[in-house]
From TrEMBL:
Keyword Ligase: no
Keyword list, A-Z: Hydrolase, Signal
Gene3D superfamilies per record: Chitobiase/beta-hexosaminidase domain 2-like, Glycosidases
The UniProt record lists the keyword tRNA-binding: no
Protein name: Alpha-N-acetylglucosaminidase
Residues of the signal peptide: 1-18
Alpha-N-acetylglucosaminidase tim-barrel domain location: 137-219
């Protein structure tokens, strides 16, 4: 009897799981890069320039749009070539190369990036293909925008976005502008500017205002 109950429970859990998976896949299916291949190529080349400076001259990147993500590393004449379906896959493959061939690291806590071997270390002659284990790589939670990044300037954001690409993130949470939408809605409902201003939290507390566990701001 216990076994039957356990099997029934397990079946239910699996069914809920597959329903959720179906729902999530359906709602995320439009999530992909809409940026032209050549623009992605420029973006990832500029990322390399920011990350490894003039040594980026030893790396050639190219984007070959494809139905499923991939990136390959190959090496010829002291030049590393990275070909991938999109900029994030190329950046992720570059980070793989940096870690496992150059023994260098770019992290939240700091970088160990000086003295990259010259010439760059070769990869096996048949090339190396890097593929992400999962389709969507999500990053951030609802609070970080307030308690970590609220006062960041562009320099700091650019580094974070570079870090995301290097780690293959393709689905970062960005609910920037949430209040602008709410303001429109509240106005339609007849709220005054003064009411709305009183209701929204200050910049460092927007996350909690958005989650509905705080309104207003004492200053
Ligand atoms: C951005 O912020 C960092 C850290 O506060 C600071 O060192 C840097 O000078 C700032 N950059 C610009 C362009 O304001």
């Amino acid at each position: 009897m216990h076994l039957i109950k356990a099997v029934l429970l397990l079946t239910t859990v699996i069914e809920i799981g597959s329903f959720q998976k179906h729902y999530i896949e359906k709602s995320l299916s439009p999530v992909r890069s809409y940026t032209a291949g050549h623009e992605q190529e420029t973006a990832v080349a500029q990322l390399l320039q920011r990350v490894i400076g003039e040594r980026s001259q030893d790396v050639v990147v190219s984007i070959l749009p494809a139905a499923s993500e991939f990136a390959t590393l190959s090496y010829a004449g002291k030049t590393l070539k990275i070909t991938g379906s999109d900029a994030v896959s190329v950046a992720f493959a570059f980070n793989h190369y940096l870690k496992y061939y150059c023994r260098k690291q770019i992290s939240w806590a700091g970088d160990q990036i000086s003295d990259i071997p010259n010439p760059l270390p070769p990869v096996p002659a048949e090339g190396v293909t890097i593929k992400a284990g999962v389709k969507y790589r999500y990053y951030q939670n609802v609070c970080t925008v307030s308690y970590s990044s609220v006062w960041w300037n562009w320099t700091r954001w650019e580094r974070e976005i570079d870090w995301m690409a290097l780690n293959g993130i393709n689905l970062p949470l960005a609910f920037t502008g949430q209040e602008a939408i709410w303001e429109r809605v509240y106005k339609k409902l007849g709220c005054s500017d003064e009411d709305i201003k009183k209701h929204f939290a200050g910049p460092a507390f927007l996350a909690w205002g958005r989650m509905g566990n705080l309104h207003g701001w004492g200053g």
